[in-house]
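idk why but the lab printer keeps eating my pages so im just putting this in chat instead. protein + iron/sulfur cluster:
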Amino acid sequence: MKNLEDLKEQIRKALPELDVVIGWTDSFDPLHATPHFMRKEEDIDKLKVDALCVHNLATYLPGLKGKKVGIVVKGCDSRSVVELLQENLIKREDVTIFGFGCNGVVDQTKIRSIIGDVGNIEACELTDKEVTVTASGEVHKLALDEVLSDKCKTCRYPNAVLSDHFTGEEVATTATFEDGYKDLEEFEAKSTEEKFAYWLGEMDRCIRCYACRNACPMCVCRDHCVAQSRDPHWLSQEAHVRDKWMFQVIHAYHLTGRCTECGECQRACPVDIPILLFKKKFNKEIKEVFNYEAGLDPEATPPLLTFKNEEAKIKERDW
Amino acid sequence: MPVLEGKELRIVGFLCNWCSYGGADTAGVGRFDQPTDLRIIKVPCSGRIDPLFIVKTLMSGADGVLVSGCHPNDCHYAEGNFYARRRLEMLKRFIPMLGIDPNRFDYTWVSASEGQRWQEVVTKFTEQIHKLGPAQKIEGADAEETLKLMEASL
Ligand code: SF4
Ligand code: SF4
Ligand code: SF4
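predcted complex ->
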């Protein structure tokens, strides 16, 4: 980030009034960043913001309710914050938002599939165009464009949609809503049987680790999640594909009109199941029927939490 | 009078207590002929129906699911069916993603006095399900198919 020092300065000024500011810092190896909780001045020096800062930090906000929290957000992350505000899960006066214009983050799965063994990363250099990774003595030059997350290639909100402090210049964007749904449309073109077989295979790989749920900023039920509740008993603890599949439908449905497509669920999945497709499907239909997108207006009500007597776009069955 | 003798399919109906269950009762009292594939689950209001009931039912092996509540503006609880309508519409549009034919699920409105209409709804829906035949069951994944998919994604 070019204006990192400006951001640090903003945080430095705000920190005395706050319990914690959440950002990112270096992780266990040079190819990863990790969430960073800044409580003291010296913590701020370790802040980093670059294409490795993939985590959506908004996930931590509901758990810090009641505290004064600062948070550093990319465009997509800022939508999660807005959605949490919309749903009264956090209070506006309790959060201080440090936004910036984002140029995209990398997809570790793509990097892994290109360079293979990522067990021993020695160095990682980032420029606007390139990621240079040294792994097990070998240097790999990867075009940033090739390893960018899919969501970033069609990003329409690279700038924080809501912020108290904004760092640097706004990033321009030309992507349209439709651009983000090409993969979904491709999938939808498959036959009913193909889709069924596809999910049966994909869901079979799920190990029920619930990383997808835990990474999701909008999965706020925590200890009351239907995946584990005995009352009501929605899912058994069996490793049957039916339960795993059902869990994903539950996750997707509970996010209808709320999911901001930050992609954290899919990123967190250790076995790379393309679960974002389900959420995209709901989002596309929400847009089609209610002309609504989650996480843009803190005052808006998610469409499934309200209704109209006459629904313009719902055509009912006339038997 | 089953639509196809000896070939019943399993259809689950979620009906609201105040209108559609009454409507089905009216049809019964009026001795209207109805297919017998439908098993009714009575719920207090269509607004009580979590769309995930429907997914769970389909994934557990039902061949079709029908939801019926009071007509909009006639809800016993004033607005339960308005919420239901939005939720069910979203589900209806989502179902094809799972590789389940969207015609296996429908939602509609039948009032307590509409015995005739209930007969029509249930007959047509049952025919619709019979046209599709038995649903694909989730027995477990095909290991070879899974392996192929995994290899393709590597
Ligand atoms: S989706 Fe947009 S805001 Fe989010 S990381 Fe990618 S480019 Fe940045
Ligand atoms: S469901 Fe996935 S994409 Fe949507 S908000 Fe949750 S983590 Fe983000
Ligand atoms: S993260 Fe992946 S493997 Fe883990 S529960 Fe979610 S879908 Fe299953």
